[in-house]
Amino acid sequence: MLYVIDAFNLVHKNDALYQALDGRGFPAVKDALVRMLARFAELEGAGVVAVFDGSEKGAHRPRRERGSGFIGASKVELIFAEPGLGADRTIIDLVSAAKRPGEITVVSDDKFVANESKRAGAHSLGCRAFLKKLNMGERRAADPLQGEDPRKYRGLTEREVGEWMDYFGFKDNE
User: Which of 60, 76, 107, 161 could serve as 67's disulfide partner, Cβ 3.0–4.6 Å?
Assistant: First the structure.
């Protein structure tokens, strides 16, 4: 599965990222967002593409880059839209050009982007729903037994070992 993220749309729905944007600027927010998305990619086994609006000031920047230096960064790609084109159009074009759009989930609260992505065959997910999915993944990773006592899983009983041995065709050599 590939998640295509409307990056600034997501930043504006996450209080910590939005406040960091106001206080520390774009580079700090970009780094925090990449770390967050890299962790999501690692937990979900998915690829992530974050699409940012481009700007004339950022014209010198490469249009595509890997989120280098972060956990799971090989699964996170950043795309900066061409100035004047915008992230919305870039996302729609990316989904429309995909060979298997059914394997793409577009994360955006923009109705136009969501509708056009669905029309192209992709799935759509709102930013708050994505953040909830991200938080649930973090909780599962932090507590894989979901509160159960780990002593419960001590191993197989003698009877269970015998049943599995029979199932796989191993016979007792007595």
Answer: 76
Tens digit of each residue's pLDDT (9 = 90 or more) over 111-142 = 999 999 999 999 999 999 999 999 888 877 77
Where are the domains positioned within the chain? Answer: 2-147
48 has which bridge partners?
Answer: 3, 76
Query: Rounded to 5 degrees, what are φ and ψ at 61?
Result: -70, 145
Which CATH fold would you assign to the domain 2-147? Rossmann fold (3.40.50)
Of 107, 152, 138, 127, the C-alpha closest to 2 is 107
Beta carbons within 8 Å of 157's beta carbon, 6+ residues apart: none
* pTM (two decimals): 0.74
CA–CA distances in Å: residue 148 to residues 3, 9, 66, 68: 32, 37, 38, 37
